[in-house]
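FORM 12-B: Structure-to-Sequence Request
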């Protein structure tokens, strides 16, 4: 069951079904009500907004919507582009998990331990591949 609340100058919408909760803010009450109805239908049907998207797509969206508003926008976007060169960026969000992040972290830690400053060389390798190459 969705709920709607007026907050300052915006309408806060909350869609909840099957233990899944989504929230958003809108300029008009009509937009909020329409969004609640559509979100609840999507939740019930099982259609996911992350279907077919990769971690790289998520990084692109973050760069566009969040990084672009920051003072350090340029450097954050450079870091995001470096992360997108790694295999981690091609992993579908449906199967993305903490093990993927820890594997990526292990590669970077191993490269730092052996004194390699230019980590861009290792963005497409696993920790095992990197260890074999450095031996």
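FORM 12-B RESPONSE
SEQUENCE OUT:
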């Amino acid at each position: 069951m969705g709920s709607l609340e007026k907050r300052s100058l915006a309408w806060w919408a909350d869609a909840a079904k099957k233990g899944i909760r989504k929230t958003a803010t809108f300029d008009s009450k009509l937009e909020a009500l329409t969004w609640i109805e559509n979100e609840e239908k999507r939740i019930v049907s099982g259609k996911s907004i992350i279907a077919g998207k990769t971690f790289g797509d998520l990084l692109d969206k973050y760069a566009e919507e969040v990084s672009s508003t920051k003072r350090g926008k340029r450097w954050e976007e450079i870091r995001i582009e470096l992360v997108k060169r790694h295999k981690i960026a091609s992993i579908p969000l449906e199967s993305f998990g903490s093990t993927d992040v820890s594997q990526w972290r292990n590669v970077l830690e191993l490269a730092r331990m052996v004194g390699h400053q230019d980590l861009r060389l290792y963005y497409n390798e696993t920790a095992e591949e990197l260890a074999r190459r450095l031996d």
